[in-house]
Design brief:
The complex is a heterodimer of chains A (about 450) and B (about 400). Chain A is an alpha/beta fold and about 450 residues long. Helices cover about 35% and strands about 15% of the residues of chain A. Chain A has helices spanning about 1-20, 50, 60-65, 70-75, 165, 180-185, 200-205, 220-235, 255, 260-270, 300-305, 335-355, 365-370, 400-420; strands at about 45, 100-105, 110-115, 120-125, 130, 140-145, 190-195, 240-245, 280, 285-290, 295, 330, 360, 375-380, 380-385. In chain A, a hairpin with a 5-residue loop joins strand 4 and strand 5 (about 130). Chain A is globular and about 90 Å long. Chain B contains 2 helices and 21 strands. The longest helix of chain B is centred in the first third of the chain and has 5 residues, at about 30. Chain B is elongated, with a radius of gyration of 23 Å. The chains are: A alpha/beta (about 450), B mainly beta (about 400). At the A-B interface, helix 1, strand 2, strand 14 and helix 14 of A face strand 2, strand 8, strand 18, strand 19 and strand 20 of B.
Chain lengths: ~450, ~400
């Protein structure tokens, strides 16, 4: 009896302690840490449009803010990163270069419009191409839309006649010979992300495998190998750690997979049922009927060329062998094979360099192939490579949505943690959007 | 370009009335013993706990009882630092019991209105599982007329009919963004009904022991014409028409065995074991009246196991007026880890409780109790959504009841 009485007091005691202590449940299983191998105090991001936060066919503030390096940097604050500054456009010039916006869905067809207000255009160069408001303070995100590995070593790229996104980062009167590589390897960084090389093959691919100028040139393998290694050598002179990323497969992005032969033909047949074939000019200059293996570039749909006639050439565009769809709008299977092979070669070089310089690799190639097929399920959110509805790619069909950037940031964080034994917290990607609908 | 087919995985709104949502607070006397006492307490709440005991009750009584359930969960996504807490919310399950019998009769009739399942959880619109759930509020109200008959002084039997009124209201984010960049939202609410029964027998030998066996049948609750409302960008409005839905939820059958015995003239010990036949809950189907390519009927796997709980408590009659009690219990969850959802992130749980009853007068009696349930932390990776992380949950339930006897 006495025992039971005692026990009752004990129970009451236990219960009161439990009440006080556990009103709110606690979880403490994750402890952010930098680990022993890498130092994240000064992180810089080197790369192209993907690193800059380019999206919807333009560079604008909202995209810059959710660029994957900026999302990574936020997480790095918990493991010793001191500051991460980006060349943001101001609020007044928030639309930067301008970008595409979805205006309406008409019978399920997207109608786009260009945003042309609140731009950061400060003038034009002698060719009439826009120059953007300068940003010459110290920055950590060195992403430059259009930057290629070969251009990173080339002179004049930082001039008004070069790349306007690089030019805006440099003070006036910068030596025209000053290169992007020199610029980013002189920053006393302790850690870096390096994602260059995409444009050395995708610039060629997006132009339908037609080399028109320096931006659409296909970089050869030997050059790529040499430049890639020499860039990394300069980035790791003080044994800095960093992470490289592979180049996505050309057939994994909606820019090449959205406009199909069948869809184009169906559009034509709606008004001209007698049309049975489309004609294309292939890479070798021959003309043949289009097949389902041919990949049409996304802008071909909005260019509105198909079926057009001109006074000089009164043959409907693309519907007759005498006026075929130009090679720059289509990748034929031979071109696709060349591009796929080049991507593979470049990615092998990237992985070899990672080994050589003891760096991590974010395998964007494999990740985006998974997004394409079978697609990924992220916390109840379906993500795939479909244009607009797939949530991963923005309205230009190449660059990522904020959600795509968040997933990319998590891919990098995963690889950094695995390689360097760090414990960097992942991002809650479900708070980032896909495409904005009107 | 091909016509847009939105690649959304829509919303199979997975409301469920899980073990996690079963918080038995029908009598503060039993709550004080962590849920044990079906054999020990012979009073108006026997309508719920042991219909066979009802006929043995002296006189008649009416009681009203309310609890304040605080269901507090936290979630941390795998590989991430941030912890997301559910918003603080008090759910007030209630019960009312009334008995009637002429003096000296061998039978007694009773009516119980109570809420055996129910809860409220609100994770908000910014946590990693927002496409699974924003908030869920639900309640099953059982209305149970019961008749009990005393075959001998020692053996009573009873049976009741159960009419269930189920209310549910839930929301989740939709992965479509408008011009402001915010996610869309689906809200589903509805009322369902179902019927079932309960039966029980109570046997006791004065001052030696008491035994209670009771069975509550499955109650299949059918929600008809619930409202489904979607907040989506204008361009997608035709894909997400506001519509109605039907759904069906089996509330599981349970078998309860209770035993009590005195250890002294003032102290009784009671133990209860409850088996929940939750394996009936295989899947949840939502049937929308208007379907579109993105708004399709959904079928969600649940694959529950059977559940079990064991409870033991001690009742100490300190004076004729004041009884104190304490109890503890263990609940084995019916939810498999890969099917755990944020509605009730269930797991095996331990409970501890304290309680009292004070006789204000011959006619009035006041009872109070507090139970704390701690759910073991649960590492989950949802098969339905891929959401992966740790849930940690505590449930607090203080309550009070007032009885009038005549």
């Amino acid at each position: 009896m006495k025992n039971i009485l005692k026990n009752i007091h004990l129970y009451i005691g236990f219960a009161s302690v439990a009440l006080l202590a556990s009103c709110k449940p606690e979880i403490e299983s994750f402890k952010p840490s930098a680990g022993e191998q890498a130092n994240f105090s000064k992180y810089i991001a080197i790369g192209n449009s993907l690193t800059a936060g380019f999206a919807d066919g333009g560079l604008y503030l909202e995209g810059q803010q959710v660029a994957f390096p900026n999302l990574i940097a936020t997480q790095l604050q918990q493991v010793g990163n001191k500051s991460f500054n980006s060349p943001f456009f101001t609020e007044d010039q928030r639309n930067g270069s301008g970008y595409l916006r979805l205006k309406a869905l008409i019978n399920g067809q997207p109608q786009m419009e260009s945003v042309t207000t609140e731009l950061a255009v400060r003038g034009v160069n002698t060719e009439g191409k826009p120059l953007y408001t300068k940003y010459t303070e110290e920055i950590h995100n060195y992403g430059v839309p259009g930057m290629r590995l070969d251009m990173a070593f080339a002179p004049y790229i930082g001039t008004a006649m070069g790349n306007p996104y690089f030019e805006r980062l440099l003070p006036d009167n910068t030596d025209p010979m000053y290169t992007y590589k020199e610029h980013v390897t002189s920053k006393d960084h302790t850690f870096f992300t390096f994602w260059l090389g995409n444009n050395d093959v995708l610039g060629y691919a997006t132009n339908g495998a037609v080399e028109e100028d320096a931006t659409s040139k296909l970089t050869d393998v030997a050059t790529f190998k040499h430049l890639y290694s020499s860039f990394l050598k300069d980035l790791t002179t003080n044994k800095q750690k960093g992470i490289l990323a592979t180049i996505p497969d050309v057939t994994a992005i909606p820019y090449f997979t959205t406009v199909t032969r069948a869809a184009l033909l169906a559009t034509v047949q709606a008004s001209a049922p007698e049309v049975e074939q489309l004609f294309i000019e292939t890479g070798d200059g021959s003309v043949r009927p289009a097949t389902d293996e041919d990949l049409f570039v996304l802008p071909f749909s909005s260019a509105g060329l198909l079926g057009q006639v001109t006074p000089e050439l009164p043959i409907p565009y693309g519907l007759h062998p005498k006026n075929p769809i130009e090679s720059k709008y289509v990748l034929d299977p031979a071109e696709v094979t060349i591009i796929k092979q080049r991507v593979e070669d470049f990615n092998n070089i990237i992985k070899e360099n990672a080994k050589q310089y003891d760096l991590a690799v974010a395998d964007a190639y494999t990740f985006l192939n998974q997004v394409k097929s079978p697609g990924i399920m992220y916390n109840g959110l379906g993500i795939n490579a479909s244009f607009i509805t797939g949530n991963a790619f923005s309205l230009d069909g190449i660059h990522l949505t904020p959600l795509g950037n968040a997933l990319m940031a998590n891919l990098f964080i995963d690889a950094i943690n695995k390689t360097y034994g760090s414990n960097i917290s992942k991002i809650n990607a479900s708070n980032y959007r896909g495409v904005k609908f009107p | 370009m091909r016509k847009l087919l939105l690649g959304l995985l829509l919303a199979s709104p997975s409301l469920l009335w899980a073990q996690g949502s079963q918080v038995n607070t029908q009598s503060q006397k039993a709550v004080g013993m962590a849920g044990a006492g079906s054999a020990l307490f012979v009073d108006e709440s026997s309508i719920f706990y042991s219909p066979g005991a009802l006929a043995k009750m002296n006189g008649n009584a009416v009681s009203a009882n309310v609890s304040a359930i605080m269901y507090r969960s936290a979630f941390q996504e795998a590989g991430a630092n941030e912890v997301y807490d559910t918003k603080f919310k008090i759910t007030p399950p209630f019960s009312v019991f009334a008995t009637f019998s002429p003096e000296g009769a061998r039978w007694k009739a009773g009516l119980g209105i109570y809420t055996p399942f129910g809860g409220s959880v609100n994770w908000g619109e910014e946590w990693p599982g927002k496409y699974e759930l924003n908030h869920l509020q639900m309640r099953a109200i059982y209305i149970q007329p019961t008749i009990s008959y005393k075959i001998t002084e020692n053996l009573g039997i009873g049976a009741g009919f159960v009419y269930n009124l189920g209310l549910v209201d839930l929301s989740r984010s939709l992965p479509v963004s408008g011009p402001d960049g915010k996610s869309g939202r689906a809200e589903l609410s509805g009322t369902g009904t179902g019927t079932g029964f309960n039966v029980g027998a109570h046997y006791h030998v004065e001052d030696v022991f008491a035994l209670s066996v009771s069975y509550r049948s499955k109650v299949n609750t059918k929600l008809k014409n619930g409202d489904a409302e979607f907040t989506v960008p204008d361009a997608l409005a035709s894909s997400f028409p506001n519509t109605t839905f039907n759904a069906e939820l089996p509330l599981p059958a349970s078998l309860n065995i209770g035993l009590s015995f005195p250890v002294s003239s003032k102290v009784d010990i009671a133990a209860d074991a409850t088996f929940l036949n939750y394996s009936v809950y295989k899947k949840l189907v939502f049937d929308y009246k208007d379907n579109t390519p993105v708004l399709t009927d959904t079928e969600q796997e649940k694959n529950y196991k059977n559940g079990f709980s064991g409870k033991i408590g001690v009742n100490y009659q300190t004076t004729p007026k004041l009884a104190l009690r304490a109890g503890m219990g263990y609940v084995a969850s019916p939810v498999r880890a890969e099917y755990v959802s944020p509605e009730t992130p269930d797991n095996d749980r331990i409970m501890g409780s304290i309680g009292f009853t004070y006789g204000i007068s011959d006619k009035w009696e006041l009872s109070g109790a507090y139970v704390l349930q701690h759910l073991k932390s649960r590492h989950v990776t949802s098969v339905a959504t891929g959401l992966s992380g740790i849930y940690e949950t505590n449930i607090h339930a203080p309550g009070i009841s007032l009885t009038y006897k005549w």
